[in-house]
Design brief:
With about 650 residues, the chain is α+β, with helices and mostly antiparallel strands. About 25% of the residues lie in helices and about 30% in strands. Strands 1, 2, 3, 4, 5, 6, 7, 10, 11, 12, 13 and 14 form a twelve-stranded mixed beta sheet that branches. The longest helix has 30 residues. It is globular, with a radius of gyration of 26 Å. The N terminus is likely disordered.
Length: about 650
């Protein structure tokens, strides 16, 4: 994915990268049986001929330093032994300690080298990390976030020596998602006197995370000078509530002395590497954007609110919850979030209020993936957590929303909250209802009935889950339902806007660009299969052999064409394409298998149609954002022609306002 920097950002002349390859680095870690100091030192410099200008590139290498040697003057980190996930031995886990993040401040990064899926079931290309931070002064020991419980033994093996027998006196919980709060229970058990800082919603959720019968000293954070915490030695913590980034209980923390902003999920990325910092910006940009699109874009308005609340903060380091710690290009990282969020809101053709119950069943995951699908079709989503708002806040959030989406809450919450949502809704709104898979869901038909009876339009059928927990096919259904719902909200507006945006003469001229006809087909984990008819396809390179495919952002197949994903380009044959076109151009209900009743063969990259003239097996290498489409550049891995005498089906248009 090619991402231009914001206009306000000037790329620094010097960038940093690692001398050893990622694969090589990973392979060499297993031999380390105990924590040992590693420091990074310059070993060479070379110039890059990119764009004709000499650009300095400083190379770095990891070298062992004898135990006990003072390396405090340099960026250093210590790697623990490589372990494996208990239930999946092939999944490698490791803990890294970065002792000199700032004065009195240490980072503890849990490296999940091989994790391939995360949270709302989006794929990871380079694993992930779970970061927590330790601030130690003469008066206090403060831990900012913990880690995933699967790192329990390795995490404490790293943390205990740092504590050196002293108790943790303060615990800051940025939010209660299990990958950051999985070891809160351990901290409270070991240090019952610890003060736990979090938002009101956060502390409520924490009661379910600690041991049964265990109490803790919770301090509710609202934000503002009165909530500041003095840790001693000049370290003062300041808090700002940042709900929906991407959970309703999220908050940011600033250490005024060190200029470190602790933002948990915000500004993060799923990218696992030994280097604890954003050393190689070019390597990170794709992961940074993908993470934003999956987790933050559904909450664009909340992103801008959080940036506004923290605009007076002075900091030069963002201590994120996932991925490298950001300190090299602060303006760029922040400007991207602002630019992308403003663009998302500006482009939105309407707003849908998404109502759910936090902590109930799979409501968070399902609502987020529904919102991802809706965002692809140009709809802004605003989340309403029924456990965190009062009746007046529900009414205010629904004001101006053209769509209402309800993920079935528990029966107890439904009795007290859903009547307010219905009372605040008008008959002109569109409505969608789905199960949350919590075991005590309020029946979707009971929720939907009063809306339909009042005249609301229900353009997408309610979704139900028939298994104990959602499957990959269920996640596909919910994302496609989000896209279908958004398209129903914007159908008239989108058609008019596309027609009005193009000069008639240009539309006729552009329509004279002829193309072939193809079926882009993917097959993903869990039996997910989907496809689309494509015509905007061309060869793009000789070495490596590559093609480009333009994919509309609201296409279902787009979610499965990220960097590293495989797909098959089926080339249709002249005179034999009509039946295939008719089949794949039908409007399918969310989650329906597009290949049911179709003759095809499975390959590592996806389905090959039995009646295809030829096919290409491809791997996505990059993506270019071109407004309402992604231009996917892919390397061709394999290919074959089934009928050497056949000709490619061609596609001719009169005007360019449609495909």
């Amino acid at each position: 994915r090619i991402i231009p920097p914001p206009a306000s950002f000037v790329m620094p002349a010097v960038s940093m990268t690692s001398l050893s390859s990622r694969g090589g680095a990973r392979g060499s870690l297993g031999a380390r049986g105990s924590f040992s100091h590693v420091r990074r030192v310059r070993v060479s410099a070379s110039s890059s001929p990119a764009s004709g200008a000499s650009r300095s590139r400083v190379m770095m290498a990891a070298v062992e330093a004898p135990l006990g040697e003072d390396v405090s003057a340099e960026k250093s980190f210590a790697l623990g032994p490589m372990t494996s996930q208990a239930d999946r031995p092939e999944k490698r886990l490791q803990v890294e300690v970065v002792p000199n993040l700032a004065e009195n401040t240490t980072a503890i990064r849990c490296l999940d080298w091989d994790r391939d899926r995360f949270d709302i079931e989006f794929a990871l290309a380079e694993g992930t990390t779970y970061n927590s931070y330790l601030i130690q002064t003469a008066e206090a020991t403060c831990l900012v976030d913990t880690s995933h419980e699967k790192f329990r033994d390795a995490y404490w093996a790293a943390l205990d020596p740092l504590l050196n027998g002293k108790p943790i006196t303060h615990l800051v919980v940025s939010h209660t998602e299990p990958d950051h709060s999985g070891l809160v229970k351990d901290v409270v058990d070991k240090f019952p006197e610890v003060k736990v800082y979090g938002t009101k919603v956060c502390l409520t959720f924490l009661k379910d995370l600690v041991s049964e019968g265990q109490t803790f000293d919770g301090v509710t954070v609202k934000g503002g000078e009165a909530d500041n915490v003095d840790l001693g030695d000049g370290h003062t913590l300041e808090f700002v509530a940042a709900p929906n980034l991407h959970w309703p209980d999220t908050m940011f923390t600033l250490d005024r002395k060190t200029g470190i902003a602790y933002t948990c999920d915000a500004f993060g990325q799923h990218f696992c590497t030994e280097d604890p910092y954003d050393t190689n910006v070019d390597e990170l940009l794709d992961h940074y954007r993908f993470y934003y699109d999956c987790l933050m874009r559904p909450n664009s308005r909340s992103v801008l609110t959080a940036l506004r609340k923290t605009k007076e903060w002075e900091y030069d380091t963002i201590a994120v919850g996932h991925g490298p710690i950001l300190r090299k290009s602060m303006t760029m990282w922040k400007d991207y979030y602002a630019t992308w969020s403003e663009a998302a809101l500006e482009a939105a053709a309407g707003r849908a209020a998404v109502i759910y119950e936090h902590g109930y069943g799979y409501a968070e995951r399902l609502s987020q993936i529904f919102a991802k699908g809706a965002n692809k079709a140009g709809i802004e989503t605003e989340f309403i957590d029924l456990t965190a708002v009062d009746d007046q806040e529900v009414i205010e959030a629904l004001h101006g929303a053209s769509g209402v989406v309800i993920f079935s809450p528990s029966s107890a919450v439904a009795e007290t909250k859903l009547s307010t949502a219905f009372a605040a809704s008008s008959s002109k709104r569109k409505i969608f209802v789905a199960e949350s898979c919590g075991g005590d869901d309020e029946p979707v038909d009971s929720i939907l009935r009063p809306y339909v009876e009042s005249g609301c339009d229900c353009p997408v059928d309610p979704l139900r889950i028939k298994t104990a927990e959602p499957t990959p096919l269920d996640y596909q259904k919910y994302e496609e339902a989000g896209t279908d719902f958004a398209q129903a909200m914007t159908k008239k507006v989108a058609a008019t806007a596309r027609k009005d945006a193009m000069n008639a003469g240009i539309a006729k001229s552009l329509g004279r660009i002829h193309s072939g006809l193809y079926v882009v087909a993917v097959e993903a984990e869990g039996g997910v299969r989907t496809a689309m008819i494509a015509s905007w396809v061309t060869q793009a390179s000789f070495e490596p052999l590559g093609i480009t495919v333009a994919v509309a952002k609201d296409r279902a197949v787009e979610s499965y064409m990220q960097v590293g994903d495989g797909f098959v380009l089926n080339i249709l044959e002249e005179g034999k394409a009509d039946a295939t076109m008719k089949h794949f151009l039908k409007r399918y209900a969310p989650g329906v298998d597009r290949f049911e009743g179709i003759d095809y063969d499975s390959t590592p990259c996806g389905p090959v149609l039995g009646n295809a003239l030829a096919h290409l097996q491809c791997c996505v290498r990059s993506r270019l954002d071109t407004g309402d489409h992604w231009v996917i550049y892919a390397e061709v891995i394999e290919g074959a022609v089934s009928n050497p005498q056949g000709r490619t089906a061609s596609h001719r248009r009169v005007v360019a306002t449609y495909y």
